[in-house]
Amino acid sequence: MKNMNEKTKKWIIVAGGLAICAVLVMAIAGRFSKPATEDALLPIQSADGKDIVVDESNNIEKENQIIVSPIEVSEQVDDGNGAVDQGTEQTIQDDAEKPIYTEEELTNPDQKPNGDEVTEQDISVDHDKVQTPSETPKQDNQPQSGDKKDGQIYVPGFGWIEDEGGGGEATVGKSDGDINKQVGIMGE
């Protein structure tokens, strides 16, 4: 090994590793292969077995007794709807025609152009002239948000809760920004 250079040593090690891997793959694949199955031999039939005999004389008599009555086909009555139920012929509907209205029908406010009467639901509302209520009416029987009574305050969604006196308490931690340092007193 003294007179081999580093490149040759490297290739010998790689080739040896590949050979070992190939041997391992073959060994593992051999463990998962299915064993060869042998065909099961059927027992030999002996000549002394009983033969099955079918008596065909009864079947011939029954076949001769079958009588098929002719089927009567009644004529179908045409209901006159224009539909064709036999063959491949198809009819195509005519093009739709747009109705023509007179000027009087178009400008009459009491009647639609198709002749129907105008109802309350059909009249358009001018949304600029609709007055909106200025305030929502306060309901006397329900408390509003922030109402106080008997040392409690009403909060919508929570109901009457004890009035603790206001907001939260904040303290400023003195730190250089390292998150591993303790801020404040723990365990109180």
Structural summary, described in words:
The protein has a 3-stranded antiparallel beta sheet, with no helix packed on it. The mean pLDDT is 77. It is flat, with a radius of gyration of 50 Å. The protein has 188 residues and is mainly alpha-helical. The protein has a domain at 1-31. The chain has 3 helices and 3 strands, in the order H-H-H-E-E-E.
Overall 3D form: flat
Unreliable runs = none
Please tell me the overall pLDDT: 77
- Terminal Cα span: 72 Å
Radius of gyration: 50 Å
* Largest sheet properties: 3 strands, antiparallel
User: Structural class per helix/strand content?
Assistant: mainly alpha
> Largest sheet, order of strands side by side?
1-2-3
Task: Give the DSSP E fraction (strand runs of 2 or more residues).
Answer: 5-15%
Helix content: 10-25%
Order of helices and strands: HHHEEE
Q: Report the count of strand segments.
A: 3
* Count of DSSP-assigned helices: 3
SSE topology:
Elements: H1 6-32, H2 57-65, H3 103-107, E1 148-149, E2 152-155, E3 159-162
Antiparallel strand pairs: 1-2, 2-3
Pfam family, one: DUF6550
InterPro entries: DUF6550 (IPR046680)
Biased composition (Polar residues): 131-145
Throw out a few tags for this protein.
single chain; 188 residues; mainly alpha; three-stranded antiparallel beta sheet; 3 helices; 22% helix; flat
